[in-house]
Amino acid sequence: MTPHAFQVESRSRKGRIGIILKILYLSSEVAPFSKTGGLGDVAGSVPKALWQKGMDILVVTPAYRSAISAQGMQDKGQISMDGGFSFILAGRKLQVNVMHSAPKDGPKVIFLDIDGLFDRDGLYGNGKEEFSDNPYRFGLFSRASVELCLYLNSMPDVIHANEWQTAASVYYSANLEFSEPRFKDVATLLTIHNLAYQGVIPSRLAPSLELNAPMGPSHLATGIFWADVLSTVSPSYRKEILNPGRGMGMHTLLKARRKDLFGILNGADYEKWNPEKDPYIPANYSIKDLSGKRTCKKELLREFRLPQDIYRPLFVIPARLTGQKGWHLMCSACKKLVKMGASVAMMGEGEPQYEAMLRYTAHTCRPYVSFLRGYSEDLAHLMQAGGDCLVMPSEFEPCGLTQLYAMKYGTIPVVHDVGGLRDTIVDPLQDRSGATGFKFGEYNRASFLSSIARCLRYYNNKPAWRRLMINAMAKDYSWSRAARNYISLYWHLKSKK
Ligand code: ADP
Ligand code: GLC
Q1: In this structure, which ligand is nearest to the CA of 318?
Q2: How many domains does the chain have?
Q3: Closest CA to 189 of 426, 439, 490, 472
Q4: Are residues 211 and 350 both part of a single domain?
Q5: Which ligand 1 atom is nearest residue 347's CA?
Q6: 39 C-beta closer than 6 A to ligand 2
Q7: Same domain assignment for residues 134 and 151
Q8: Residue 463: how many CB atoms within 10 A of its CB?
Q9: 38 CB near ligand 2 (under 6 Å)
Q10: N or C, where is the chain less crowded by C-beta within 10 Å?
Q11: Residue nearest to atom 3 of ligand 2 (CA)
Q12: Residue 258 sits in the same domain as residue 296
């Protein structure tokens, strides 16, 4: 047995005798090793929360060059080489290199590289375009993750796959049942984080993956069809995706599986996102003493080269540059926001057309609007701490973590009333004394600006604003609740097997 096999002891970490579930948790991003958005945060936090609740969990993720490089190793812990194994798919022998990291305060993370396909700069692309072989790379990764169980000679109770990149694992696990009976007892769960990404398989690549995708040639459709159960990342998004408008072509398939589809709201990792101990910000602060927030605001204004007007409300938006995030709406409203007395700091990386649009907007609204292109964990934290308000005009938002972090930093979210944003923000129109932010319903400029206007009225009323900040900071969206829900789902699955 290799050192990574699931532990067979039946004693929970609290010392109680009982059955421990063995979970193989698959994700194409796991913070701090790899991250392009919320998926990385989720896969860095959920397994830890499950581990803290006594689950026996192995996390499996690709061995990207940047994930296993020495850079930032302090944060990542030691990564060791373990050797490897091979498997045959579509008549081709594929070599898998295995590495691992074993942090003291969380589950083991196993890194796989298959035929050198992950040893590149970039996770999904080279900064200009996506790698054209992504459906192949992640198809092989999904298969290798399942083959890993045979290599470890240790079977999980549940394979928990995330997003299209690991969705095919649920098919491979069901398919390997025929040659390896031990897979019969393995249950599968696929969590959908964003239906906009489906991993469509070009016909030239399909034969090399030996996938049976009855609902069309995509990784996600395959996963939705074959997984024992499905979940998504908020109750509202669960409802939305059963309709043609938000189902992105998958609503019929999802409807057919609606009884097996659960909505489990994401959480926030308050070890990492907490103004009381955040190492990325120049001054820490808390509900009891908010004075440090002012220091953070000054620093943020400096970083974004915005006028040092501390009393001017500062709106921040750190997000991927992609259509989902509502950059069009944001840009269309910027001039008016400045007229209403606000400053705006925007940061993002992604699709080049948004970069040009944001540069143009910042130029035409100078000096009160600034845009920084790039990806910076430090600045993302500083924006949460130094902003007065976070704007999330997302057209759709499966859950969103950014607004959860913002609340903890006393940065008031202004969001489109959709998906996870609907589930996590309380507007004064819903509950005056318990409000935590502002929501707009109709997806247009007028409706967006009217929520901004309401927000500014509160900002100009000190006691009301303070109430909002305190409500938001006191909210508890820690991962513990979601972990409990996942554990119930695992047991439900186990009972069906
Ligand atoms: P999504 O997963 O759709 O991108 P979420 O709100 O769930 O949206 O998660 C976004 C995560 O990515 C947050 O941790 C946020 O701080 C981070 N993020 C987004 N853009 C950047 C950026 N340019 N630099 C650093 N972090 C970013
Ligand atoms: C996706 C969604 C986002 C969600 C994240 C983590 O990237 O766009 O809303 O919070 O996954 O589940």
Answers
A1: 1
A2: 2
A3: 490
A4: no
A5: 23
A6: yes
A7: yes
A8: 8
A9: yes
A10: N
A11: 400
A12: no
Range of the domain at 354: 291-475
Nearest atom in ligand 1 to the alpha carbon of residue 318 is: 20
Residue nearest to atom 9 of ligand 1 (CA): 38
Indicate if ligand 2 lies below 6 Å from the C-beta of 398.
yes
**Are 228 and 107 within one domain?**
yes
Structure confidence by residue, pLDDT tens digits, 237-250: 999 999 999 999 99
CATH number, domain of 451, equals 3.40.50.2000
The closest alpha carbon to 480, from 271, 193, 269, belongs to 269
**Quick one: which ligand is closest to 263's CA?**
2
Short-list 221, 154, 143, 138, CA closest to 176: 143
- Pocket flag, ligand 2, residue 421 (CB < 6 Å): no
Q: 14 C-alpha to center of ligand 2: Å?
A: 32
- Cβ atoms 306, 367 nearer than 8 A: yes
Nearest CA to ligand 1 atom 4: 37
Are 331 and 415 found together in one domain?
Answer: yes
How far apart CA 209 and CA 211 sit, in angstroms, is 5
Give domain status of residue 116, yes or no.
Answer: yes
Q: Which helix (H) or strand (E) holds 466?
A: helix 462-474
pTM of the model: 0.95
Q: What is the pLDDT of residues 59-102, one digit of tens each?
A: 999 999 999 986 555 566 678 888 899 999 999 999 999 999 98
Of 217, 246, 212, 218, whose CA–CA distance to 232 is shortest? 246
The answer to whether residue 114 is domain-embedded is: yes
Same domain, 73 and 165: yes
| Whole-number pLDDT of residue 10 | 43
- 425 domain-assigned: yes
**Mutate-to-test residue for ligand 1 from 321, 325, 401, highest number of ligand atoms within 8 A of CB:** 401
| Residues 389, 491 share a domain | no
Q: Match 């579930």 to its residue by tokens.
A: 21
Task: Indicate whether residue 401 lines ligand 2 (CB < 6 A).
Answer: yes
486 in the same domain as 460: no
Ligand 1, atom 22: closest residue by C-alpha: 375
Ligand 2 pocket residue status of 233, Cβ below 6 Å: yes
213, 260, 306 from 256: Cα distances, Å: 16, 9, 52
Query: Is the CB of 348 inside a 6 Å radius of any atom of ligand 1?
Result: yes
Q: What is the pLDDT of residues 281-336, one digit of tens each?
A: 999 999 999 999 999 999 999 999 999 999 999 999 999 999 999 999 999 999 99
What number does the ligand 1 atom closest to the CA of 42 have? 7
